[in-house]
Amino acid sequence: MRVLVVEDEPYMADAIRDALRLAAIAADVAGDGDTALELLGTNSYDIAVLDRDVPGPSGDEIARHIVASGSGTPILMLTAADRLDDKASGFGLGADDYLTKPFELRELVLRLRALDRRRARTRPPVLEIAGLRLDPFRREVYRDGRYVALTRKQFAVLEVLVTAEGGVVGAEELLERAWDENADPFTNAVRITVSGLRKRLGEPWVIATEPGVGYRIDTGSGTGTDSGTGAGVETGTHRSEGADRG
């Protein structure tokens, strides 16, 4: 289990991290909201432990971000406030559990294990296609047995493509399913993300481009067409091969 702990009190953060490590739970600690969002953007976590009163984006704002991302990461909130209204507002933001300070570290560990078991009961199936193995629950990707480290967005795009089972997925659909509702429909984010994803997965290219239509997982030879920036998906113009291989 890998947990993100967002706690601005150094003594408390160290105590939580040490307790989790003793319980064989990997823990990354963020002392402020900005660091927490940065970690969430580059790593996948089984559970997020959020102090509601951290500086920068607050624990409440981080909770909203996690819920909006669609990652399904369970949230355990920490707070010194013990009023029912405070707890109700936390659950309203998407918290799955609540712990009031001060608390026993052993209780925190027990609650985290309970959340992990609950999540495991709704664990989505592992997806496999064309040498790719994608585990939505653990947020892990393997190609031909080799672990591939992906950013959160790259993982989201690949999950959509793998779920399509070789079918073509348009750039507009990828934008709708892998980005939030505030995404600019005229952005080149899809092209850039697919280009980076190809490089991470390595050759032979497994993501094929259908010019003017979209992208798909190549279930045949595994030598998917690489149209560089992928502009042909949105304009219908076929660009030269290999533009993003460098």
TrEMBL record:
A GO biological-process term: regulation of DNA-templated transcription
Modified residues (4-aspartylphosphate): 51
Segments of skewed composition (Gly residues): 221-233
Keyword entries, A-Z: DNA-binding, Phosphoprotein
A GO-annotated cellular component: cytosol
Stretches assigned to the OmpR/PhoB-type domain: 124-219
Keyword Phosphoprotein: yes
Molecular-function annotations in GO: phosphorelay response regulator activity; transcription cis-regulatory region binding
Chain intervals for the UniProt region annotation (Disordered): 217-246
DNA-binding region positions on the chain: 124-219
Gene3D superfamilies reported for this sequence: 3.40.50.2300, 6.10.250.690, Winged helix-like DNA-binding domain superfamily/Winged helix DNA-binding domain
Compositional bias annotation for Basic and acidic residues: 236-246
Residues in Response regulatory domain copies: 2-116
Protein name (Swiss-Prot/TrEMBL): Two-component system response regulator VanR
